[in-house]
Amino acid sequence: MKVTIDGQSIEVEPGTTILQAARMIGGEVVPPAMCYYSKLEGSGGKCRCCLVDVTKGSEADPRPMPKLVASCVTGCQDGMEIASKASPRVQEARKSVTEFLLINHPLDCPVCDQAGECDLQNLSFEHGKSETRFIETKRTFEPEDIGPNIQLHMNRCILCQRCVQVADQLTDKRVHGVMDRGDHANISTCISKAIDNEMSGNMIDVCPVGALTDKTFRFKSRVWFSKPYNAHRDCDKCCGKTTVWMFGNEIQRVTGRKDEYHEVDEFICNTCRFDKKEVNDWTIEGPRTFEKTSVINRNKYALHVPKVEIKTEDHILIGREEDRKKISMIDVPLENAENSKQ
């Protein structure tokens, strides 16, 4: 099947969604996605960030779709034409969706561990408005420890339900989920049970905001101050392939390896994530590069920066004569300094 997105055509297999087709093309035509996660079955269709305008339904039925559709759950049709970033209607809708997601979101970016690699931060930077029309009182929750190494900040949650789906997919018995309904909906554990299984840390990796944070990394550093390296180890619980984030010779945190859409290549176990923080625990492969547009990518910290040789003159190093007298320095004539230098 042939589909066209913002004037760029591509051949796709039947069953491919518009979002998947856009990612095959790449670049600016790719819609943002806060709830869709390709590694999680049944994800998508909740945040409405990926709305697109189908200007031509198919070759068989060329009528446009009357409303914007969620690209993550809408299948492609042969001859379909879609407007994504090129549509002012889509851009205005994404601004409205971003404003809606920020209704209850606190201004925690200065203290949030997710800042710098936050999908919501990137979304609001590109599509957000400088002001909000929301004047009601925001809902608030206290931080909650839902496991020995995981803390939940429900104030930041956008209810994408990725954490619920990853628990369904990787564990036999999920003990947390969406409680209540409507504006009162929140993520919590059943009867205050702690989430304590070997793959629970993957909820941190799939969270698009800072709602689920790693307690072993909490307030240690900003992500753009640490350098990511690909590393691996022999592990009998997972693949053992990770990204270790280092500050100097210290490993501050361990995450799964993520692609340009901030999705992990493979899920990792809690032993690799929380317990192995020594350099000797890992085989370091080399620096990790990022393709996704974000704060940490713009910083280009993974690039080698050559040292710049600073040239100066001898009299500047020794100091001016009047300055040396003011601070009672030993009077060293310039000619003696030049001779001693030779």
UniProtKB/TrEMBL annotation:
Listed Pfam families: Fer2_4, Fer4_Nqo3, NADH-G_4Fe-4S_3
Subcellular location: Membrane
Cofactor section: [2Fe-2S] cluster; [4Fe-4S] cluster
Domain of life: Bacteria
2Fe-2S ferredoxin-type domain boundaries: 1-88
One Gene Ontology MF term: 4 iron, 4 sulfur cluster binding
Domain 4Fe-4S His(Cys)3-ligated-type intervals: 89-128
Matching PROSITE patterns: 2FE2S_FER_2, 4FE4S_HC3
Keywords for the protein's UniProt record, in alphabetical order: 2Fe-2S, 4Fe-4S, Iron, Iron-sulfur, Membrane, Metal-binding, NAD, Translocase
GO cellular component: membrane
Gene3D superfamilies: 3.10.20.740, 3.30.70.20
InterPro entries (UniProt xref): 2Fe-2S_ferredoxin-like_sf (IPR036010), 2Fe-2S_ferredoxin-type (IPR001041), NADH_UbQ_OxRdtase_ferredoxin (IPR054351), NADH_UbQ_OxRdtase_Gsu_4Fe4S-bd (IPR019574), Prok_molybdopt-oxidoreductase (IPR050123)
Family in the record: Belongs to the complex I 75 kDa subunit family.
Record protein name field: 2Fe-2S iron-sulfur cluster binding domain-containing protein
Organism: Flavobacterium amnicola
